[in-house]
Amino acid sequence: VQRREFVAAGFGTSLFTPLASTAATRSAPAPSQAEIDKYLGSVIESGDGYLDKLAFEMFDDDSDYKPGGAKFRRLDATEDSLFYDKPKLVEHIDQRAVEALTRRNVNLISEEKAVNVLDMCASHVSHLKDAKGLEVVGVGLNADELSMNPALSRFEVVDLNRKGATIPCASESIDVALCQLSVDYLTRPVEVFSEVARVLRPGGVFSVSFSDRVFMSKQVA
After folding, report:
1. Which of the two residues, 72 and 12, has the higher pLDDT score?
2. In this structure, what DSSP letter does residue 136 have?
3. Alpha-carbon distance values, 175 to 59, 92, 160, 171, 196 (Å)
4. Is the dihedral of CA 30, 31, 37, 42 positive or negative?
């Protein structure tokens, strides 16, 4: 069996540490009650109680908290193309975290002597200090946003949440794959991570970073 390496980095607290285990083991442990309580405390809003009720319904038990289970659902289940029809030029982390993530990516690419890099769920920035000498393929949801990213050698608009979606790269062609601050929007993470494994060369690295600052309506539970 050819080995691919999976690494994860978090900025702030996140419920999606269990999702990293999904990629590595194909089996996601349910979040602890403490994690659930902390998560709900950070998102529940005052008012008519709708979000309170919905949030607790989504986290009421762990019976289907597994790859492909109902727990990978969202407050806004409409097509992602509608939500991302206009560029969203935002960072979900502060400047110090941006600098730390950039250093991490640069060091990883240097250590791996990488040339071919995949930036999946890409945006207007890839957190690469200098992409000179690299072939960086961007996969995202908004063409205007992707066209603003100076690090990308080429890009394609692909909705990775659609059944049967594929990454537009040849098998075993990528040295380092990056999923930055977006893993919490994937409704089919195991299928997508399997695609990443397909395009990674033997010994390649898949680096996932995440934050607790998100588009709440599109974050999976």
Report:
1. 72
2. E
3. 37, 26, 20, 11, 11
4. negative
Q: In the prediction, which pLDDT does 4 show?
A: 64
Mean pLDDT score, 68-91: 72
Those residues with Cβ within 8 angstroms of residue 20's Cβ, 6 or more apart along the chain or in another chain:
6, 8, 208
Are 155 and 140 spatial neighbours (Cβ–Cβ below 8 Å)?
Answer: yes
pLDDT of residue 42: 55
Q: What span, in angstroms and rounded, lies between the C-alpha atoms of 95 and 9?
A: 16
Residues in the chain, overall count: 221
Which pTM value belongs to this model? 0.69
Q: What is the 3-state secondary structure (H, E, C) of 151-197?
A: CCCEEEECCCCCCCCCCCCCCCCEEEEEEECCHHHCCCHHHHHHHHH
> 18 in helix, strand or coil?
helix
Backbone angles phi, psi at 168, to 5 degrees: -75, 60
Tokens encoding 134: 């690299």
H helix or E strand, kind and range, residue 6:
strand 5-11
Residue 220: which residues within 8 A CB-CB, separation 6 or more?
A: 71, 72, 73, 74, 184, 185, 186, 187
Spatial contact of 168 and 137, defined as CB atoms under 8 Å apart? yes
Q: What is the DSSP letter of 12?
A: S
Work out the average pLDDT over 188-213: 90
Q: Look at the block and give the residue holding tokens 């560029």.
A: 87
Q: Which three-class secondary structure state does DSSP give residue 51? A: helix
More confident residue, 199 or 70: 199
